[in-house]
Design brief:
Keywords: Transferase. One of its GO terms (molecular function) is CDP-glycerol glycerophosphotransferase activity. This protein is of the alpha/beta class and 354 residues long. It has helices spanning 13-25, 40-50, 60-70, 84-87, 105-108, 122-131, 146-149, 188-191, 203-207, 212-221, 238-243, 253-259, 282-288, 293-296, 309-318, 324-335, 342-352; strands at residues 2-7, 29-35, 54-57, 74-77, 92-96, 116-119, 137-139, 169-173, 196-199, 227-229, 246-249, 265-268, 301-303. It folds into two domains: 2-142 and 337-352, Glycogen Phosphorylase B (Rossmann fold, 3-Layer(aba) Sandwich), CATH 3.40.50; 169-335, 3-Layer(aba) Sandwich (Rossmann fold). The protein is 38% helix and 16% strand. It starts with a strand and ends with a helix.
Amino acid sequence: MNVIFDTQSLYYLPQYVPVFKKLSEKGIKSKFVFYKNSHKHLIQRVIDDYNLDHIWVDDQLQAMDFYEQEKADWVFFANSFSYLERLHKVSKSAQLGHGIGPKSSYYTKSNKAMTVRFVEGAYRLARLESMYPDDKFIDVGFCKLDPIFNNEKIDGALELNNFSDEKQTLLYAPTFYPSSLELFPKNWPEHFGNYNILIKPHYFSISKERYKKHVKLLEHWATYPNVYLAKVEDYSLVPFLDKADLLISDASSALFEFALLNKPVIWCDFLKLRWGYRGIFSYRFKKRMDRDYGEYANLAVHAKKYKGLKKIVEQQLAEPESLANIRLSLSEKLAGKVDGKASQRIVQYLMENN
């Protein structure tokens, strides 16, 4: 059996790598297809770290030409792919989403049927099967966190030389849109001087031109001695989740991934919305978010405004178990089994259905 991982964005890798490692353990060869962009040199460093068999392509069409040439047993995707009909003449396709967040796009990603889509938990499985009754969905869990649940060495370990072992560590991980980032004060790290602060913005915030305001703020915050700002090469959220005592975020899948570790989460309800998402256009924001958005919100304490954030942080760190039962009860709905064996189940399915 041979497998290819279609890697249109670097941040797909944390979901792919646990599967890649399980395949390697069984002597199954994998190749990675990377798409050329301005961060090619950074991606090359990741490739070298894992010693990945890989090629570079310009776009999906060029990738498709390669798939026709290779005729792999399976090709993995983290999102949609435009040439599935051509692909299915030579290979089977597998979709492995890169996040478990509250956005409705989680479900619309299945508009074009792949051979199989691996999903997280019985609830998501049932919803997708009702929406796409002719398609194949398999509940395996959320393999991105397998390394943490298995107490493995975490890839991409952070060098936090300026952090104090005597301070607790906060992780601020805003998404790119809709985001709380621009509503945080320019000097907010001063307000949290008694803590180590990890800042892990979404990959788009630091890689796309339209979010240059984000970059300006982020680079300013990085000048504070108690702050570590993720670099572009820190593509994986997993090392940050592993190091943090508490997470602050907004409408990001980071909220739910951190909650699966049963550590306290603060959800920022204050978001910078574009004018086209405000007032009479607020329906656009609601459409962007999943219908379960409200229920998922219960796993976190909510900060209505930045002004009340510090008090909530202090309270949650003093009582980290206060929402533990709710986090645990929602974990099955969010991610299915959290036993560190999701990637193992994926590989088992591939082998049984080769």
